[in-house]
Amino acid sequence: MDNVAFESGSGLSHPYFPVALNLPHYAANSLNMYQLLGAFGLGVVAVIGMGSILLARRPHLSWLARITFLWFLISGCIHFFFEGYFVYNHATLAGDQTLFGQLWKEYSLSDSRYLSSDSFVLLMELVTAVFDGPLCFLTAYAILNDSPLRYITQLMVSLAQIYGDVLYYTTTLFEGSPHCTPHPYYFWFYFVTLNAIWIIVPTLLGCQACQQLYRAVARTQALDGKKKVQ
């Protein structure tokens, strides 16, 4: 998909909105959209492959636990490595020609705040990389080892993901999406669909965690009640 370049306030052309956005260090991607999405997809497949090797050593886990493990493993990698890369390199991202840099420039067609070091986006991604990422890995580890910590961390990270995504959505929509290229693909696929995954799945996993924690507390209270009667 070809992007039309607009002249920014600095006189340099870039395909981002608003048109007056000043990106003096901008450099066009050397990889096209299909190459970038393909590379990202291969990365996800590689993580699934590594996760499947670990799961092969845990034949007792249910299919739901296996899928949940892979979800947290993939989420952890995205939060910690990919989003962490943005946090570390945000100031020079517009001219970054690494794979992660070009992926971020492609995604920024739906939200140019990622190229302008927007304070809200930067702080949100910092929390996501530092808090959500490691917590996802901890939850994946807990699932793999049947740890009672699993549903506690699952609920914590799911709530954090939902909270961050809701704030991300609402700040953009409240402003009228001025940072998004006005092509439906970038708004509906990149901005809406891709981010909606981290609302829908965490909501389901958060509900599951609440259900399991409720049952555990109910069983404990029932046992305590029996002991008092005796």
Automatic annotation (TrEMBL):
Give the record's GO biological process terms.
Answer: sterol biosynthetic process
What are its GO cellular component terms?
A: endoplasmic reticulum; membrane
**Pfam families, alphabetized:** EBP
Q: What is its main location?
A: membrane
* Annotated membrane topology: Multi-pass membrane protein
Tell me the ranges covered by the EXPERA domain, including all copies: 64-206
Query: Keywords for this entry?
Result: Isomerase, Lipid biosynthesis, Lipid metabolism, Membrane, Steroid biosynthesis, Steroid metabolism, Sterol biosynthesis, Sterol metabolism, Transmembrane, Transmembrane helix
Residue spans crossing the bilayer:
33-56, 63-82, 120-144, 151-170, 185-205
Q: Name one GO molecular function term.
A: steroid Delta-isomerase activity
Q: What subcellular locations does the record give?
A: Membrane
Q: Give the UniProt family note.
A: Belongs to the EBP family.
* Name listed for the protein in its UniProt record: EXPERA domain-containing protein
